[in-house]
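Appendix C reproduces, verbatim, an entry submitted by the partner laboratory led by Prof. M.T., so that reviewers can inspect both the input and the predicted structure.
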Amino acid sequence: MTAGTETGAPVLSVRDLHVAFGSEAGRVEAVRGLSFDVAPATTLAIVGESGSGKSVSALAVLGLLPGSADVRGSVTMNGRELIGLTDTEMSSVRGREISMIFQDPLSSLTPVFTVGAQIVEALQAHQSIGRRAATDRAIDLLDLVGIPDPIRRSTSYPHELSGGMRQRVMIAMAIANDPAVIIADEPTTALDVTIQAQILDLLATARAETGAAMVLITHDLGVVAGTADDVIVMYGGRAVERAAVDPLFDEPRMPYTIGLLGAMPRVDRVTESLTPIPGSPPVLIDPPDACQFAPRCPIVVDDCRHGEPPLAAVTPGAAHDAACIRLGEIAADGTVDGRPVFDDPGLPPHSTPTDRSDEVLLEVTGLRKEFPLTKGLLRRRIGTVRAVDGISFGIRRGETFAIVGESGSGKSTTLLEVMDFAQPPGVVRLSGTDPSSLSRRAARVLRRDMSIVFQDPAEALDPRFTAFDIVSEPLRALGLSRSETDDRVARLLRRVGLDPAHADRYPSAFSGGQRQRLAIARALATDPRLIILDEPLSALDVSVQADIVNLIRRLQADGDVSYLVVAHDLSVIRHMADRVAVMYLGRFVEFGSTAEVFESPAHPYTQALLSAVPIPDPHAERARSPIVLRGELPSPSEEIVGCAFAGRCPLHQRLPESDRVVCRTEVPMIRETDSGHGSACHFTDRMPVSGGDDR
């Protein structure tokens, strides 16, 4: 029983749930004996790495698994058994008594029907309601979830809405019939942090409006800290720790949980190093009768490999269970015999900008990139998309410079323009040289000073190449001999933590983290002076993410390579970057040292971004008042007079009308302090210290 069940009889009970699939390699035991209760008006979070069984469990509860799946156990909804019901019988339960918010709303919404029609369909499927009344109710629901101009938007198709709006539509459909349970499967994954804050605020509103219980499936422990009442940590298809949110974060007792918490970066402070979990999750094909975490556990003993430990109470009578045979030896502070369960990786201390060389490696001045907006068969130009609008910055030798902002702000376009060498003379200078002044051959030589690591290593690496081929390809282009190439590839693989003996493997044989290490090894092959990292961690689990962050930190300390990083995760940026620039609609609105920008944000947009990042600490997260921005990033094709952020700015809303006129009519220029901290806001001096009541 979880702590939340004390508030009333459980509305949803799962007992000894097993899910298995057949495969060519053997029987995959995806879920193995999962049990939990969810009480009305409470939130149960289920967390764990990819492949732990979280989403499969939710689909089993809803009866959405394929017929080939072997589902055993018990799932009761208000005392009614759901396992064994026919699809027709389950159809009367899904959407009416229990609903689901899927991870990707674009693939979950039907592309050929308007969003209003889809909500109407959900209403009429479970209620005796006329078309007109259902349409009015759909518009009311869109208004409730914060869709602007709900009457017009109800006639829009899914592809005409942004990702945040599509997720709002999914939430409107989920609450349309006042269900007793809402299952949210990674509802904020791939969303900007500002949109994530809106969605989390909306989920809280939805739960309050319906009184529903919620099952939140997520990998983000910061989201869990701020929203959950109870938490289940899954690993290897089963629950390995279960507790109320406070004791689980304050006193984790399962080594896997301790590892997850140690791997999470925090936006509110910098730790010298994150503690990654070594290895990869198990492949659950005919799993052995042993602790599935044993191959990765730093405190493993022989007995761990002889029998799988059951969930046991941390202390007699406590509603805190963990599955570890060394449970009695793990102290409340996560240590064993006074030593941490996971050893500190021993990274060098963070340097400061003053430790860096004064040599400017990359200098960008007035960078612009516009795209024509066309219409019709004749592609008549009807406007201009200003993706990047005159930004300037420099990166010194050995420095890491980060660009952050919402999707559509121009971050990735900036990287591509720097890489492309296609800007007019005087805009980009690399190693003191203007690429526009060089011949094609000379520019190709200069390009060796620069390399890039893309967002998704699975797509960036050629699946037909072995690891050796991937890393050696740029070396062969340099004309190195076979023996030199062999030696260099082996050294590069060791440098990024890969075994040179695995050089003959294809990318599919590596885990996600190992593939990203392989991509970094390739980027290092030509000894570049600048490495560009385009969202290098967004496709990775938190434990793997910590490993890659530590790897980059080691590479930063090892040499004079500079890094240009684009990321949406500000917690990671705080651990990696020396300086940071905040980008909004093609322009920098704030820049400076990472410490200054994060601790003393001087622009309302920066303050909103930082306040919206969840902190993996329930006490700290509940004490904050995040600034939830209303609306979404305007289109870069819009002709905006004055401050582009004014329409969403919480500070602008509090100003007297005489000052609002200034925001609407005058473009704010960046004002820079002696320390190099600059911001573009007319009224920086009136910014509140915290989010206040903008929540």
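The chain has three domains: 1-97+179-269+281-344, 353-589, 600-695. Additional entries are available on request from the coordinating office.
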